[in-house]
Amino acid sequence: MKLLRSSALSLILTGAALAMPAHAADSQLTVFDWAGFEEPSIFQGYIDKNGDSPTFAFYGDDDEAYQKLASGFKADVAHPCSQMVSKYRDAGLIEPWDVSKIPAFATIDPKFLDSPIFKDDKGVWYIPTDWGATAIAYNADNVPAEDVASLNVFIDPKYQGRTSLPDSADDVWALAYLATGVTDWTKVTDEQFTAAADWLRKAHQNVAAYWADPSEQAQLMASGAVDVAWSWNDGVVLLQNEGFPVGFQRAAKEGSSTFFCGFVNLKDGPGNEDKAYDFINAWLAPEAAKGLLDTIGYGHTSTVAMETIKDEPAVKEGLSAVDAPILAQTPNDPAQRERQLAEFEKIKAGF
């Protein structure tokens, strides 16, 4: 996901900063998060109560975060997307939240909690907080609208060496499944998997680079290195804020994807447990929605919070419903996900 301050792009374009170090502040709470979510406007209530931001440590993708935590890295809360929660539970890395300490939990749209992976008779394991879309970002000066009317722009020889895909197995498989007619990745047959893998190998031939985070994607597009990318909202909003002619096609005929993310309570965290709840409560406050939208371009899971931003242009352009198929990146079979991850590594290596 996640780096959207307007100063970021100028740093990126000069090559001054691509990696984000840990940001130390309140030593009693360590948040393991995507770079960019350390923006105070998203959790201002925490600062108001505790006098400073939490300490942040950053990662670039969900699998990297899981591997680091499974290897012993210590933090208090982490911010995985929904399809990762089962891995954290199975590995014994997380414990349930006490939702009696989270008054706004009741305002979370029930659709984001509709899974026994998130909530069961043992408790609530996941607090969904934010959601977005994955779709085609493109240089509107160089790419005609008709070219991005189909996801096959990613295999069009016209764009050989001019495309970029995320270095994220979940997102590239969402793309490949959509392009081959699959909109539900919880029921993938072997034939559908093979068809998607074949399509992804064709798409690989056009890839100039796989981006690790939206800051890198923004660099690739703003520098002119690529014209078409499979993108989250973040990079699009960053480029728009800098006046770059970026389009965001969420209604290609084969569709686009959606995802949502949230926070897990890490077992044996080194910090203050009460402050973990302060952080979640700040995140779920209605005023957090505007900070989230302006900084990251994402929607909020709280219906009360979303009500405060429903008329914002960024909601209407980047988050509203579209007349096209949607593949929702909800929890899927862990074995299937591992199969996709392994196959993606082969594809990137040219096999």
UniProtKB/TrEMBL annotation:
InterPro entries: Sperm_putr-bd (IPR001188). Keywords: Periplasm, Signal, Transport. Its main location: periplasm. It is found in: Periplasm. Residues 1-24 form the signal peptide. The keyword Coiled coil does not apply. SUPFAM superfamilies: Periplasmic binding protein-like II (SSF53850). PANTHER family: SPERMIDINE/PUTRESCINE-BINDING PERIPLASMIC PROTEIN, SPERMIDINE_PUTRESCINE-BINDING PERIPLASMIC PROTEIN. This is Extracellular solute-binding protein.
